[in-house]
Amino acid sequence: MHGPSLLLGVALMLAGSVYPPLMTDAQGRADHGLALLLLWAMCAGLVRGVGFVPRFWLWRALFSGWSSLLALLAFVLLKFLR
């Protein structure tokens, strides 16, 4: 699952850099919850995508490809269903 995770991480990095309003609320203010979820999805995708698998079970769970997808799903639900 390295390739899709790396692709997801790079895509999220580019999306957040090119279009920062992804991480804002309806009034245009920074939404730290959205930013946290988007950056968590990006970091988990990049960590797993380069092939690094942490030894400690908690870090392994937080930086897995599945947690990246879960964080991205939570981001989409909060951003577009609010």
UniProtKB/TrEMBL annotation:
The UniProt entry, under Pfam families, shows:
Cyd_oper_YbgE
Q: Per the UniProt record, which residue ranges are transmembrane?
A: 6-22, 34-51, 57-78
**Keywords of the record:** Membrane, Transmembrane, Transmembrane helix
Record-linked InterPro entries:
Cyd_oper_YbgE (IPR011846)
| Protein name as annotated | Cyd operon protein YbgE
Q: Which organism is it from?
A: Ideonella dechloratans
